[in-house]
Amino acid sequence: MTISPTLHKYLAAENIAYDEIPHVLTMSSALTAQACHVPGDRVAKAIVLRRNGGYLLAVLPASHHLRLADLRASFGDDIAMATESEIDRLFADCARGAVPAAGICYGLDVIVDDSIQMQPEIYIEAGDHETLLHLGRAQFACLTAGCLHGRFSTHD
Questions:
Q1: What is the DSSP code (8-state) at residue 21?
Q2: Nearest-CA neighbor of 100 among 121, 41, 108, 68?
Q3: Above 80 in pLDDT, residue 84?
Q4: What are the C-alpha distances in Å from 87 to residues 14, 95, 106?
Q5: CA 111 vs CA 11, 17, 130, 141, 154: distances in Å
Q6: 29 SS3 class
Q7: Measuring CA to CA, which residue among 29, 47, 51, 25 is closest to residue 38?
Q8: N or C end of the chain: smaller count of CB under 10 Å?
Q9: What average pLDDT score do residues 104-113 get?
Q10: 29 close to 125: Cβ distance less than 8 angstroms
Q11: Which structural domain range is residue 19 located in?
C-alpha cells in the first residue's frame, strides 16, 4: 500500500502538489520523523476524537502531545479518544495507525494546532507506515482551508 485512494483522489481534485517520501516501516509519527530525518515539529500527526456523536480529527506536530483538556474547554466536555475499531472504520483504506492529517476527504471536522501551520513545510502520513507526503506551507494551507485552528498541544 502507498498513498490511500481517498487521500490521493482528494489531493488530485484539489490540485494540491506533494512529494512522496518512502521510508522504512515505522509505527509512530515520531519514529517516522526520525526515519526521514525530518524535524518532528514538521510532521503532522492526526488524532481521531469522538465528539457529540460524530468525529473530529486533531492535527498537531509529531513532537507534541495533545492537551485534551484544552479541546474540551473550547468545544465542550463531550470529546474523547476514538477507539481503534472506530478509526479502522473511518479510515478503511489506510493501514491501522496511519491516519493522514487530511480529515476533510474522509468527511471529518478538522482542528489544526497553530504550531504546525507555522512550519515552512509539512509532512503527513499517506495512509500506510512506509510513505510520507511532503507539502509546502501553502499546500498544507490549501489542505486545511476552512478547518478550525487553535492551540491544544504541548511540545514533548
A1: E
A2: 108
A3: yes
A4: 24, 10, 11
A5: 19, 22, 25, 12, 15
A6: helix
A7: 29
A8: C
A9: 95
A10: yes
A11: 5-155
Mean pLDDT of the chain: 94
pLDDT band at 156 (very low <50, low <70, confident <90, very high): confident
* Domain CATH for 84: 3.90.960.10
Residue with cell 502538489: 17
Of 6, 19, 2, whose CA–CA distance to 131 is shortest? Answer: 2
Residue-wise DSSP of 76-90: -S-EEEPPHHHHHHH
Q: Which residues contact 147 (CB under 8 A, 6 or more apart)?
A: 59, 104, 109, 110, 111, 112
Whether residue 1 has pLDDT greater than 60? no
Query: 43-51 and 121-125 as β-strands: parallel, antiparallel, unpaired?
Result: parallel
CA atoms within 13 A on the CB side of 141: 7
- The three cell numbers locating residue 65: 502531545
Question: First vs last Cα of the chain: how many Å apart?
Answer: 31
The whole-number average pLDDT for the span 74-83 is: 91
